[in-house]
Each structure stands twice: as C-alpha cells, then as structure tokens.
Amino acid sequence: MHQIQLVHGRSMLLNKRGPDSSNMKTTENATHEQNRILFGRFEYVFQILIILSLVAFALETVPDLPPFWKQFLWKFEIFTVSAFTLEYIIRLYYCRPRLSYAVSFYGIVDLIAILPFYLSTGLDLRSLRAFRLLRLFRLLKLVRYSAAVQRYHRAFVIAREELIFFGIMAVILLYLSAVGIYYFENPGQPEVFKSVFHSMWWAVCTLSSVGYGDIIPITAGGRIFTFFVLIIGLGVVAVPSGIFASALSKAREVDE
Fold this sequence. Notes:
This protein is mostly helical.
C-alpha cells in the first residue's frame, strides 16, 4: 500500500520498499510550494486525466454531437472531477499548515479546476458559459508535474529583474514607434493612422517582426522610419531570448 508521510513539514510518498533514497521524493527544489504532496506513479494518471478532460472540453463544442457522446462526455466529466476533488482533499488534508496550500498558486488552480462543475450542477448552463471556460485552468495543473516547467520558473526568477526592465523598455519603444509613424503617415493616410492609438497596431506588428501588411506606410519618411523600427524589432525578440536562455542554463546547473 502506498502511504503519504510527513517529514519536517514536507510531504513525500513512500512505496512498499520503505523510505529508501531511491524510492523517496522530496520537494526541496520546489521552493515555490512549501508543502507539496507527491503521488508517485499516480501523478502520470492525473496528467493523462488533465489532457483527456481538455480534449473532452473541445469535443463538447462540436455541433450536432450525437446523444451517446454527450452522455459519455458528461459521465467522463463526473469521473475526472471526482478524481481532481479527491486529489485536492488529500493535498489540503496533509499540508501543514493547510491554509498555505489553500491560498498558494497550485491550491487556487486545483480549486478553480473543479469549481465550475459544482457551480453549474443543477443550473442552466446557458447562463453559466463563463464558468465552463474556467475548466481550462486544468491545463495549469500540468505545471505541477513537469520538472522542465519548474526549471523554467526558476529561470524566470533568476532573470526576473532583467526581463521586467526589458519589458518596460519594449513598451516605451512601442509607444515611440506609434507616435513616430503617426506623424509620418497621418497626413498621407488620415483614415488609417487616425491617432497614436490607431497606430499602435502597426507598431505591435512591426516591432514583433510579424508584419501582417494590413497597414503599411506609403510616404518616404514612413518607410525609412519603418526600416529602423524593424531593425530594433529584431533586438526586441532576440535580447530577452538570450537573457532567458542564460538564466535557464543557470537553473539547470542548480538542478545538477
């Protein structure tokens, strides 16, 4: 029988062979979740249930779905919600203090993943379509089971200040680009570049190097300005990628 044991405020799962180092998983690396419950191989079952529940959510939107499949999807929803509810209760029961899990990121995600089902039971679902969208929060439950995602989280923490600074600079560049193209193109295309706010869409597409082509400059000054914005846009994409890649390497070193 599998059992959940609490050691120094941490939760870990032991199997039949006892608390051997090869059979015991701790949460020392998961610093963002203080009291984490590990379910061993059952975690793979939860991952599969999360993916299948999202597939079922998409199937429910298929028009003219046969009654058999509607009934099957409803029963599957009951099954998955029951499994997720049991998981939530176990985590809530074994965590110390319990409130630390209930108000944590994963605790809130786990609650929102099952809450829409209980809120919509016995009520008119047509008036609660927004609650059904909350089921998509189950996708965030996969973050708990992925070591790679947790490594990405640590990398973001390492490079947080640099990324925030660069994000602020990107917003400033976005605004300046919109202002610049407005003054270049407004006289020639007043119906397209009506204001700085209307020019924001062009600035977003150009700085991100997407370039949909629905709004293009026609003046010489606007085209020259666009050239420089495109060059800057390459840096907007490349610089944060390099910063995050460096932080990801540091996070991998910490894991090793």
